[in-house]
Amino acid sequence: MATSLPDQNCKLVAESLTDALAHQWRNAKNPDNTAFASSSLTVYKGADFAKRDIARQRDALRQCPSESETSDKRQWDNVHEVKIPALKGFDDVVAEEGHLGTDEKGQKTDTYYVSLTGSRGQYVLNSAVSRGPDTQEQNRTDAVNALSLMLSRLAGR
To answer: Which of 89, 67, 92 is nearest to 77 (CA)?
Structure first.
């Protein structure tokens, strides 16, 4: 089990999810390939490990306004933390936005994304949505709705 976080040079590298009991990831896209989404759930051995995960993500976000992929040519810019109105039921939430300017093949692109990560107890949930220009408000709305739905399903189990 692994996740990607930027290293000291702001290159995304896979990090092992130590202290995780389980991790599930799902990708989706709409039929016309104009919107992409992903979601994940990580279950840790305890709440302290989940808190540590959220803290690492927040720290990495604050140190790298630009990021690049080590395995291909993707490059992100204007990566920053944003304030999202409080999401009910979460212990902590990290909200990230940014712009993908170069795709995996090195071609110019103009894609904007929102990624929300929330913790509750030993669980860490993530929802990310990306689309073309002038879509951040819709991306935020969709990511919030997805993360809230995920938490409601977790709470209802």
So the answer is: 67
> 87 to each of 4, 47, 62, 111, 121, how far by Cα in Å?
24, 18, 21, 25, 15
Q: How many residues does the chain have?
A: 157
The β-bridge partners of 93 are 118
The rounded distance, in Å, linking the Cα atoms of 56 and 59 is: 5
Q: Alpha helix (H) ranges present in 17-135?
A: 47-63
pLDDT attached to residue 139: 96
Helix residue ranges per DSSP H, the chain: 47-63, 136-155
Q: Which DSSP category does 87 fall into?
A: P
pTM of the model: 0.92
